[in-house]
């Protein structure tokens, strides 16, 4: 004690003598254990044995390892500073469509996670590519297609872009005609501007009917893939258009923008995240005049093929346009929905 006090006094003067004494007295009153370790007294001092080092917040170093269908490692991604990762996509193979990711190997559809999702990771984790085997997709014959209930509707009109045109071509190539009671207004690469300037006039002409006709025309819209950033404009225009079409005896439906694999295209204008965002916002913003047909979820649950050639000769995979088997299944799902099944 004296030595300590003399040292303080010599360094800072008399003013701190009482303070130094108080500090030393406090030290003598310390408990005999610290952090569960023995505190050993030696004269007027206390020595603490094996004090554990201070624990500091460590950086989150969790990683996710992504594996291909064949079990080989695709890549390993570290979480960001907030503990999240954004899920990557991988290319389709010649036999399979990449659907998303699962924590179980060997899954072929209904992925737990989708490309572009941002998820929180609390530990090192393995995720496995969900690959849909295209040869497992049923190829519907003409007599297996859902028939339009013509006692309920006078006709069904699809209005859309290149995917709707692909559906129309599928029927013309496979069966020589579109199904009975169905017509299609479609043009590749188009969106809201085309709908306003061109398609709506054709649509008004299609739905014209005698005053004595009591059956409505069912109109199924499938636009948005080419201008995903214009969702608010779509909502505003579609809700305005709905009143004009209802006055012309129409019942209205809007089909979701359906899934794609942007790893096959690397497009900056359309990708999986933008499609999901468009669908969610459109569904919430459309008025009660529309019935929403969620074929996006149907395809993610059951699988789909993006071998975009129609017919038997042209076969290419752009990750966006579908095989004829998928087009027929999308059509069937729509007709089931409007028929009330």
From TrEMBL:
Source taxonomy: Bacteria, Bacillati, Bacillota, Clostridia, Lachnospirales
Record keyword Hydrolase present: yes
Taxonomic superkingdom: Bacteria
Gene3D superfamilies (alphabetical): SGNH hydrolase (3.40.50.1110)
Keywords recorded for this protein, A-Z: Hydrolase
Signal peptide positions on this chain: none
Name under which the protein is recorded: SGNH/GDSL hydrolase family protein
Positions of transmembrane segments: none
GO molecular function: hydrolase activity
Pfam families with a match to the protein in the record: Lipase_GDSL
Alphabetical list of InterPro entries matching this protein: GDSL, SGNH_hydro_sf
Keyword Hydrolase found: yes
